[in-house]
Design brief:
Largest sheet: 5 strands, mixed
Helix content: 40-55%
Radius of gyration: 22 Å
Mean pLDDT: 94
Shape: globular
Distance between the termini: 55 Å
Number of strands: 16
Number of helices: 19
């Protein structure tokens, strides 16, 4: 399809809003430009599906993810936006509303809205809880209606505070797709009764994520980090300049066996992925002019705090293919020998990433990422997850995958699909969550099988919105992705499991 035909198809699409058409037309125009110059082997690997650039565009002119220092913004205001520092709660909310419209990302929306409880606590003053509830609820509705993208992410915790509890209360009341929500959990700061509020919300609306705060914070420095988009951990006042992913399944398909995969093919394609990262990051930093923006000039972001994400997916298929080629019966997620091979692959990927310098990278290296999948993925499982419909019981699921989590510093997540009976036993979900974090999981997430609001890969959709999408479209930017994933991937085959052995996690 020619560029003109593509644009005509977009502008005539009856299911897209004008804003959605604007975004699609902009991406089409970007993709009409030449791709950054690539070595022939990298271009070939990209064309053959070994590598994927996540459809970021041929000429990246904005980072994939941006995490401004919102605290600094609230303390100093912005000359460029002609905003004085806010003096009260209402002014702080208004200031954030304004800045969000000037924070870019690959989605066209901000993917990080900050550690919101900590940002707003200095402005609470004498306001009582019901007044705060009313103001925050209006803000929550604004985010969903004006910035309707489920990759937008609010962080709260790990300490117990009024705003943290109010945000959980509001999220449970509204059950909105946007914004996504992560509660930081730190055993010495996060009381069980706060965590119980969070798991009760998970049971009713699949939010929030529960993030292992000490594990994440050990990756980053004193300036802090944020959980953005699906579940990605990145430096505050920076972000991710690009995300490139490697299909472990495609590499395994070419391998003669485990030794060939580990010793020859995986190192080869890892090198090509790092070269693709370098080419895309170089264009953004050297040619796009993005780092001349007011966000840099006013100290809200620092060019040196952006880092590439080295993503992988299809671990399950890669392991199972390699077991088949060695005439071994074990299956990923269920058998120890297959699981151990997966851990070895993660360890080798981690060594490559930590030993490969990147010019445009915080810390001089990319960060390894278990990529949550795209809506167009067929026959391949996101990241290191267990294939849909093949999940074991929740405790076994967690035990099989937890050893991977130490390697994936920029994000890794599972999605446990639980039987609705969990609503009658939230204590079991609490224990499962605490046990998972205690054995080294970076993130804990779950869906309840009969919930309307569910997690797809890391973003949220309403199943009712997806059902109407083909005839009505959607005001929510991510519904189209969920609809596509429902048709092309196996997400509807997730098997609901009963939490029955959660206490056994304490034995590990």
């Amino acid at each position: 399809m020619s560029f003109t035909e593509t644009c005509q198809r977009i502008v005539r699409d009856p299911l897209l809003s004008p804003a959605q058409k604007n975004h699609a037309l902009a991406l089409a125009a970007e993709n009409a430009l030449p791709y950054p110059e690539l070595p022939p082997a990298v271009a070939e690997a990209l064309a053959q599906g070994f590598l994927c650039d996540m459809f970021e565009g041929h000429a990246p002119y904005k980072p994939r993810y941006v995490l401004p220092d919102y605290g600094k913004f609230l303390s100093q205001g912005s000359a460029w936006l002609e905003l004085a520092p806010p003096k009260d709660f209402d002014e702080a909310l208004d200031a954030l509303r304004i800045l969000y419209h000037h924070v870019p990302s690959v989605t066209g929306m901000p993917v990080w809205l900050g550690r919101l409880d900590h940002l707003l606590l200095p402005f609470v003053g004498e306001l009582d809880d019901e007044t705060l509830h009313r103001k925050l609820k209006g803000f929550w509705i604004y985010l969903d209606r004006v910035l309707p993208d489920a990759f937008m992410h609010v962080n709260i915790g790990p300490d117990d505070n009024r705003l943290c509890r109010l945000i959980l209360r509001i999220d449970g009341e509204l059950k909105q797709v946007a914004p996504n929500l992560t509660l930081f959990h730190y055993p010495v700061q996060t009381p069980d009764n706060l965590l119980m509020l969070a798991v009760q919300n998970i049971a009713s609306c699949s939010k929030p994520h529960i993030a292992n705060y000490p594990l994440h914070s050990n990756t980053f420095d004193q300036r802090g980090f944020g959980i953005v988009s699906c579940y990605n951990a990145l430096p505050q006042a920076g972000g991710a300049n690009t995300l490139v992913r490697l299909s472990l399944k495609r590499v395994a398909e070419q391998a003669h066996g485990i030794d060939d995969f580990m010793g020859c093919l995986l190192p080869h394609y890892c090198r090509l992925a790092s070269q693709l990262i370098g080419a895309r990051a170089a264009f953004l930093h050297q040619e796009s002019g993005f780092f001349d923006s007011f966000l840099v000039q006013e100290g809200l972001i620092d060019e040196d705090r952006f880092v590439p994400m080295f993503g992988i997916y299809g671990m399950a298929e890669a392991v199972n293919l390699l077991m088949d080629k060695e005439n071994l019966p074990e299956r990923y997620g269920h058998d120890e020998e297959a699981n151990q091979l997966g851990y070895c692959i993660s360890a080798q990927l981690s060594r490559h990433v930590t030993e490969t310098p990147q010019v445009h990278a915080w810390g001089g290296r990319a960060l390894l990422h278990s990529q949550g999948g795209l809506s167009v993925d067929r026959g391949v499982t996101p990241g290191v997850r267990i294939p849909y419909g093949q999940e074991p019981d929740p405790a076994s699921h967690v035990l099989a995958l937890a050893p991977h989590h130490g390697f994936y510093h920029s994000g890794i997540s599972e999605i446990l699909t639980l039987d609705p009976t969990i609503r009658q036993n939230p204590q079991a979900l609490l224990q499962l969550c605490k046990g998972a974090l205690a054995i080294g999981m970076r993130e804990f997430t779950a869906n309840v099988a009969d919930s309307d609001l569910v997690r797809v890969t890391g973003y949220m959709i309403r199943k009712s919105d997806v059902a109407r999408f083909a005839t009505e479209g959607s005001r929510l930017q991510t519904t189209c992705l969920g609809a596509e994933a429902s048709e092309l991937t196996a997400i509807r085959q997730r098997a609901p499991r009963v939490v029955g052995r959660e206490a056994t996690l304490c034995d590990y």
